[in-house]
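Example record

Each entry pairs one chain with its bound ligand, manganese (II) ion.
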Amino acid sequence: MIKFTYFGHSCFVIEGSKGKIVIDPFFKGNPHVKVTPSEILVSHILVTHAHADHFGDSIEISQKNKAPVVGVYELVQKAIQQGATGHGMNIGGSFRFDFGEVTMVSAAHSSGFSDGSYGGSPCGYIIKMDNRTIYHAGDTGLSMEMKLIAELHNIDVAFLPIGDNYTMGPADAATAVEFLKPKVAVPMHYNTFPEIKADPEDFVDKVGDLCRVKVMGFGETYEL
Ligand code: NI
Ligand code: MN
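C-alpha cells for the complex follow.
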C-alpha cells in the first residue's frame, strides 16, 4: 500500500512502508498551495528537470532533511554546488534506494535553470514502492517511448501533464493513457498559470473507459 498527496502542479509526496519522497517540490510561488517547504519531511527529492516550477524548493528541502536530490547528473551537480546533497542518474538507469526502486525514463521537453545554465536532459520516473508501480511523466509531449514504458512496466498509477502549451494537452494525454495502460491516471501540470489552463473533466471524458481517472484536489491524499 502506498499513499500519495498532490500539492498542485507536478508536486507529489509519496509514502510507502520504507520511506517518504517528494517529486518536483514546487511550493514557494505555487498559487494553490499554502504548505511551506519546511513542512516537507522526506528522505529523497526526485526532480524531473531544471525548470523552476519543478526544481522549486529542492535545495532548502535537501538541506533541512539531509535528503539527496535525485535527478539527471548535470542537474544534481548544480544542486550540489548550491549546497544540496545529490544522487545523479541518467535515462534508462535504475537504482534501488531504501524506499524503493527508481528508473529514469525520457521525457520530450527541455531543461535549463532559471539563470540560463544547462540542466541536463529532462526525464520522467518509474517508481516501485511496496509492490506498486508509479509513473511520473515530468513535463513531456506525447511520445512513442510510452509504449516501451508499458511493455517494460506494469503501471498502477500514471501522473500525466494535461495543461497543454508546455506539455501534452488533454487529448494527447488521453492517447498517452492508451499507450501506457495504467490502472489509474492522475492529471497534473494544469491551472497553475494562465497559459496552462485546462479542464480535468475534459481529460476524464477523453480517457473514457481506458482507465480510472482520479482528479486530485490540492493537498488531497489517495491510497493505492
Ligand atoms: Ni518544464
Ligand atoms: Mn513545467
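The longest helix spans residues 170-180.
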